[in-house]
Amino acid sequence: MIESLLVANRGEIARRIIRTAKRLGVRAVAVHSEADADLPFVVEADEAVCVGPANPAQSYRNVEAILAAAASTGAQAIHPGYGFLSENADFARTVQDRGLVWVGPGADAITAMGDKINARNLMAAAGVPVAPGTTEPATDLDAAVAAATEIGYPVMVKAAAGGGGMGMAVAADEAALRTEYDKVRAFAERMFGDGSVLIERYFPRVRHVEVQILGLADGRVVALGERECSVQRRNQKLVEESPSPAVSPELRARFLAAAVRAGEAVGYRNAGTVECLLDPATQEFFFLEMNTRLQVEHPVTELVYGVDLVEEQLRVAAGLPPTFDPAALAPRGHAIELRINAEDPKRFLPGPGVIGTWVEPTGEGVRVDSGYVAGNTVTPFYDSLLAKLVVTGADRAEAIERARTAVAGFAVAGPKNNLPFFAELLTNGEFVSGDYDTGIVGRMR
């Protein structure tokens, strides 16, 4: 096993990785910005290094500062968490070139799946269903209009290098496309340094279902079930659950087989997620993208399958076999994750501030992965995620009931937070029935 691990991230995911590292006897090194010096992940690490000011470009995305921290602390490996440098192929390659262990997929796999158009083409060649769309970037507005005319409106206009729900817009007709194309392209150039645009068929009523995969050290790729991620705002997830209430055993078998093919097509190692769109009317699903990292929502899979995905990541990176028998994987019960964010519960606008009260719920089937405690300041420099409230039950009904109790028992004062939204969602008839889609939040507002 790896003996010392630098966690190149912050907040709840850094704290969560450190927790597993310490359980395994692995020395955990944290890096942090000046703004995060008093957060729990810094305090709980065995060693911590400040890598720069609040601006992520000068701290959490500062490759040389992070590598210098690894060298000065004698860290053997680097875990990037999610966001920041986690899907940066150049960083992954540099880490390995410096003689360190990279806890993630290889740089070639990150590169292959990082461009949505290239990823679509690879998946289609591997026999994974893809939605109708362009096989090359729409290099100008005329090309975008021609592609949309062939595909059929409505279409989704996407930044080919985007991720996390950013750089996307829906165009219902040519007039809308002419407006949105330039916006998406400009955003893509500003945010990702790549203005390539993909035009893809848009499905008005669709569910977002993804599959957790793990590429093992021996070359096998295994799938650890699916997660339902259809409760979203601005194309970004708020709630995830597993198993999906929309997926039958037959459909699950097809989902998992396609996800394994996707991983095998790029020689995938370590943890990753194959994201798909599911048409509930036809039971057809289409490849959306592949996240070449650990997902925010990984706890629901951990709880349903009884595995620690961070431990499995470390074992793969160290060349060790998994702790479980891939042939005997089977889900038990139901898990739901709620993303507790520092944001207005109506408009979902960020609301940072000093945390005056922070009381986490407890009880059977309740897990809280948090990044803060009372007295910490939620700054405007980073993602608004405060904590992940994850509940399990013998079935979905029990999980929902436990979630209601846990939300009521979660006390946060200071920054704005979306706990009131979850209290509303968990009594919403559409959500409770399990028959919902990505438009559910819009229908609630």
From TrEMBL:
Domain Biotin carboxylation intervals: 1-445
GO MF terms held by the record: ATP binding; biotin carboxylase activity; metal ion binding
Enzyme class name: ligase
Enzyme Commission designation: 6.3.4.14
Superkingdom in the source lineage: Bacteria
InterPro entries assigned: ATP-grasp, BC-like_N, Biotin_carboxylase_complex, Biotin_carboxylation_dom, Biotin_COase_C, CPAse_ATP-bd, PreATP-grasp_dom_sf, Rudment_hybrid_motif
ATP-grasp domain boundaries: 120-318
A Pfam family hit: Biotin_carb_N
Keywords: ATP-binding, Biotin, Ligase, Nucleotide-binding
Name assigned to this protein: biotin carboxylase
